Amino acid sequence: MVSKVYWTQEYPLGKNLVVSENFPENVDFAIIGSGYTGLTAARVLAKADNSVVVLDEKNIGWGASSRNGGMATPGLKQDIFKIYKKYGIEYAKEFWKASVDAIDLLENIIIEEKINCDWSRDGHIALACKQSHYDKLPEYSEWIRKELGHKKTLVPKEEIHSEIGTDYYFGGLSDEVSGGLQPAKYVDGLAKACTNMGVQLFENNRVNSIKKIGELYEIITKKGSLKAKKVIIATNGYTDMLVPQIKPKVFSVGSYIIVSEVLSRELQKKLSPKDRMFYDSKWFINYFRLTPDGRMLWGGRNDLSTDLDLRESADLLTKQVRTVFPELEDVAFTHTWTGKLGITFDLMPHIGVVNGIHYAFGYGGHGLSIATYLGTELGLLLSGQKVRSPFEEISHQTMFFYRKDPWFLPFAAKYYRFLDWIS
Ligand SMILES: Cc1cc2nc3c(=O)[nH]c(=O)nc-3n(C[C@H](O)[C@H](O)[C@H](O)COP(=O)(O)OP(=O)(O)OC[C@H]3O[C@@H](n4cnc5c(N)ncnc54)[C@H](O)[C@@H]3O)c2cc1C
């Protein structure tokens, strides 16, 4: 097994991408981070006739946006019923609608920008790992139907083989609006769409500091500097101490993936008859799917840390996938990699501003569609095409004990493991 991102091995980033070398002196917007958030914000701002640069410390699209599971599913990291309890039904409706609209937006961008990224909309199923998890689903799905007007379908254990080729689960809840794609192709296509609109992309350009000079911001990298009227931080799970007041608003959690060799067509059909996206009901969630070229992609984690030993984590993931699908015992897993998710303390994505510097992040494992949505939303807000967003209205909670290092993650991991055991 090689420690490499399968997606970028299949489709190297930036093959036909025009990146810039020389900084312009002044721009309207400087965006730091070249994933879905940064590029979708850039796309909207450039369309509205602004001059825009996007800077990344690695190559364009290098972060989570080219190394994720490629699964677009409705909902946010925070459970929608808990959102309702905390913010009331109107906000719950608005956040739910945004999460569904986000998938439509993703699809519309793919069509409009002619991004060839293997997008297909075959739905997903959330799988119950215990009978007690399944028992909650009828009431939950009925609440979603009645209050949010969204249809999910209960799949009892007796019918589970129509969805997935295993007896491991106790049933599930399917949803037809979800889809899947090849993430490296999508982020690369977004980058190309941005350059077509005049956005300048700068890679291998870590932004080391941002200084306010009069009405402008000076963006300083080791290769030079430029001035911008406005700055957007779009670094999500890779957010560092660049703006120390922003760092406490998000922390990084690692997610780990393994990918198998290509499965026979028969086995593909048996394991995933409807080519669904899958995730299960554990706190230490497993998410999985067939890749567009027919490999098993299996993701999860043993811990919340971002620096687990890749080999050990791959061994754990391989054991998990073979427990669920014993047919994979003799199938080789060829690739493993990791990436960082951005999580907030209330598990909600946020749009915000600190000292005049704008940000959008905190998607958990929903960033494929939600980062696309929030980047677009931020672009619309900053170009005056939208006047409000629920994601900027709710307060963005921080914790007095976290400023820089998420020292609390090992304790949180123990707590979630305990919840998985008792729930
Ligand atoms: C393994 C894994 C699996 C996932 N699976 C799914 C999934 O199936 N479905 C889903 O919806 N979501 C998934 N996610 C989440 C999703 O990938 C992210 O939420 C989304 O890609 C975030 O996009 P972004 O643009 O905000 O950040 P990123 O794509 O992470 O981009 C941030 C960029 O900021 C750059 N950067 C950081 N600091 C600086 C600096 N000082 N100067 C310059 N550049 C800087 C980094 O180099 C990086 O490229 C997954 C994430 C991971 C890691």
Q: Judging by the overall fold, what is the CATH architecture?
A: 3-Layer(bba) Sandwich
Helical amount: 25-40%
Percentage of residues in DSSP E strands: 15-25%
In the predicted model, the low-confidence regions spanning at least 5 consecutive residues are none
Strand order of the largest sheet: 1-17-13-16-15-14-5-7-6
Count of the separate structural domains = 1
Overall geometric form: globular
The major pleated sheet works out as:
9 strands, mixed
Overall mean confidence score, pLDDT: 96
Structure summary, number of beta strands? 19
Each distinct ligand: flavin-adenine dinucleotide
Q: How does the helix and strand content classify structurally?
A: alpha/beta
The CATH class designation is Alpha Beta
What CATH calls the topology is FAD/NAD(P)-binding domain
Number of helices: 12
By CATH, the superfamily comes out as: FAD/NAD(P)-binding domain
Radius of gyration from the CA trace?
A: 21 Å
**What is the CA-CA span between the terminal residues?**
34 Å
Structural features, described:
The chain is an alpha/beta fold. The protein has a single domain, classed as FAD/NAD(P)-binding domain (3-Layer(bba) Sandwich). The protein has twelve helices and 19 strands. A nine-stranded mixed β-sheet has the order 1-17-13-16-15-14-5-7-6, sandwiched between helices. A hairpin with a 6-residue loop joins strand 14 and strand 15. Helix 2 runs parallel beside helix 7. The chain is globular, with a radius of gyration of 21 Å. The mean pLDDT is 96. The site of flavin-adenine dinucleotide has 45 residues, from helix 2, strand 4, strand 13, strand 17 and helix 10.
